[in-house]
Design brief:
This protein is α/β, with parallel strands linked by helices. About 50% of the residues lie in helices and about 15% in strands. The strands form two sheets. A six-stranded mixed sheet has the order 3-8-7-6-5-4, sandwiched between helices. It has a two-stranded antiparallel ribbon with strand order 1-2. Strand 4 and strand 5 form a beta hairpin. The N and C termini lie far apart (about 90 Å).
Length: about 375
């Protein structure tokens, strides 16, 4: 019997259909179409792997020459410019000075080539713009895990995602980000402070109404989901809670996070977050726990998101609340890169000094 003949499952249904036994012309066309698509996808993945391996090895050759080459006159930047000129003459486009610089850096960040099948050279060109090895490692891991497009990766780097997450961790947590990406295991792992909403295109100087901010986030929902992080799916806007109160109760935005297996409620506030806003969110969470979530769901998470907050007010307003309730800020512009880098450097430096102080031997009397 031919290997291409129909194979039956235990229920007797056909799993594979050979061209000779296809019942209709449409089935024949679909089978050939799938065959070609699969071949093209495989070819594309193979070409991407070969390209990355070639660029990595090009970087290896450059570094080896720098270390052992005999022609001292062409070291440093002179080597890269001369090499770019000669390779472009022989091979055509793709070997400009800047590209060769990134190939060299590509080799240096990883002495062993590891290709995931997803990251392309275009992804690496964005990632390699970072200088910090921890930052580079984080974006490699997170991009692979979250399947970011090049545009999405660029936006996350411009919004300083690594630094915003890292500043809420201790030194070990920062190192874990570089080694593992942002693992979502508890509610705190999905939080950002601040949330950066520059994609909404709202003017910073204008005093926003909550309705306009809400409408802008719905209009740019895909970008907002990217900012929220992995595992989020949109559930509802202006979710009505049927309670007999003076004013209608509506949760601005409701999401479900399939990694935490829980609903995530977000309430938007245009100015300073007040203690009443926190109490209102606590009521929403109690309602969702009782009336909306199923037995298989974890407890819901609530985020009160405002333009500003007073940490002392937040501390006293959330004290004693057992629900998973958080308060965070948003900003309508990209964060200051220099300031965030300095803050993270100071955090890591302080952590290193504390560790050194703990392990240093006591002075003899």
């Amino acid at each position: 019997m031919s290997k291409r003949q129909i194979k039956k499952s235990d229920e007797g249904e056909a799993k594979d259909v050979s061209p000779k036994t296809m019942p209709t012309y449409d089935t024949l066309v679909s089978a050939i179409e799938k065959l070609v698509h699969d071949a093209r996808s495989g070819l594309k993945a193979a070409m991407n792997t070969i390209m990355l391996q070639t660029y990595w090895q090009t970087g290896e050759y450059i570094v080896e020459y720098e270390q052992h080459g005999s022609d001292k006159a062409v070291y440093g930047d002179g080597l890269m410019r001369r090499l770019a000129h000669d390779l472009t003459l022989r091979l055509g486009r793709g070997f400009a000075h800047s590209n060769l610089h990134y190939m060299r850096k590509f080799y240096l960040i990883s002495q062993k080539i590891q290709t995931s099948g997803f990251l392309t050279w275009s992804h690496y060109l964005e990632i390699l713009r970072a200088d910090d090895p921890l930052e580079i490692a984080f974006y490699q891991k997170e991009c692979e895990r979250s399947k970011w497009s090049v545009r999405e990766l660029r936006r996350q780097m411009q919004s300083m995602l690594f630094h915003r997450i890292a500043l809420s961790r201790d030194k070990e947590g920062v190192l874990a980000l570089a080694n593992e990406g942002n693992r979502v295991q508890k509610p705190e792992d999905i939080l950002r402070d601040p949330y950066v909403l520059e994609f909404a295109g709202l003017p910073v100087a204008e005093r926003l109404k909550e309705g306009r901010l809400h409408a802008a986030l719905i209009e740019h929902l895909r970008d907002f989901l990217l900012e929220l992080g992995r595992g989020f799916s949109f559930v509802a806007s202006q979710y009505r809670i049927p309670l007999n109160t003076e004013h209608p109760c509506r949760v601005d935005l409701v999401f479900y996070n399939y990694l935490l297996k829980c609903f995530v409620l977000i309430d938007l506030k245009r100015g300073m977050i007040k203690h009443q806003d926190i109490g209102q969110m606590n009521m929403y969470l109690n309602y969702f726990k009782s009336e909306v979530g199923s037995k298989s769901d974890a407890e819901p998470v609530g985020i009160v998101l405002g333009a500003n907050k007073d940490d002392l007010v937040v501390q006293f307003a959330t004290q004693g609340i057992s629900n998973r309730l958080f308060v965070s800020k948003y900003q309508l512009y990209l964060p200051d890169e220099t300031q965030l880098r300095e803050k993270l450097a100071a955090l890591l430096d302080e952590a290193s000094k504390r560790k050194t102080k703990r392990i240093s031997p006591r002075k003899r009397r």
